[in-house]
Amino acid sequence: MTVYSSGINHKSYTWQLTILCFVLGLILAAAVQTVNQVSRAGNGPQREGFFFGNDTNGVQKLTTDLTKQIQSVQQENSHLRRQNQDLNDQIAKRTGAASTLNQELKDAQCFAGLTEVAGPGIQVTLNDNSQSTVNASNPATLVNLVHDTDLEEVVNEMKVAGAEAVSINGQRLVGNSTIRCVGPVIQVNGVPTAPPYVIQAIGDPNALFGGLNLPGGILDQMRGTNPDMVKIVKVPKLLLAAFAGSTQFRFGHPVSPRHDPTASGGDN
């Protein structure tokens, strides 16, 4: 073998490696995209029944009736809470100490989501992909639906970006809030909701907007399916209703320091 032929073989070998790496890169990129789609499609198959010739009118009527009943109870709960706060305000006017305690109570209620709050923030609207159908035999098509896990991821990204208060379709989220698929609908705080899902968050609009538009985030994945599934806008002033569900503890209770096992070293 001559020096000339050896150089030719070496160049050919280099080109083969380059082409192989390029092909592997394409395969890896396709695999990542597939994983993202499957992760979204595989976590929320329950809503697919809404599109397969079921009695949608009956389901919608039942959902509407249940929603009205739940909202009626929640409104009564909110009314009683406002009355309780009015009484606290009247008591607080009598003494300075009571006024201080009343303010601390209001701060705690605001943090817990038990009072209305207003402020700047963002509004995200998520909707199912109207340009494609959903096929039960093809799990990949489930990315055309908005799932409960999608709502959870959006809320988590909002909180990471500094959201101080969040609501979904008018339901305020607190520590014991739930977001889960039940049949053809998604329940938020036990209240059936249907698309479009309007998620509002109070906080720094720029920080929230930037945090939700990161490459590879949940909104980026949904836009990859259809950009029309996602709409996000900055809002100068939002008004979020108070949490209207139950706040009673059945099993947990505050622990007094003198009864706290860790305060005395436990069993030691």
Q: Estimate percent helicity.
A: 40-55%
The computed structural class is alpha+beta
The fourth-level CATH homologous superfamily is: Protein of unknown function DUF881
Task: Round the mean pLDDT to the nearest integer and report it.
Answer: 77
What percent of residues are in strands?
15-25%
Q: Total number of β-strand segments?
A: 8
The parts where pLDDT drops under 50 for at least 5 residues are 1-8
Shape summary: elongated
Write out the strand line-up for the largest beta sheet, numbering strands in chain order.
3-2-7-1-8
Short structural summary:
The protein is built from six helices and eight strands; from the N terminus they run H-H-H-E-H-E-E-E-E-E-E-H-H-E. Helix 2 runs antiparallel to helix 3.
Can you describe what's shown?
The protein is α+β, with helices and mostly antiparallel strands and 268 residues long. Helices cover 46% and strands 16% of the residues. The protein has 6 helices and 8 strands. The chain has a 5-stranded antiparallel β-sheet with strand order 3-2-7-1-8. A 3-stranded antiparallel β-sheet has the order 4-5-6. A hairpin with a 2-residue loop joins β5 and β6. The radius of gyration is 26 Å and the shape is elongated.
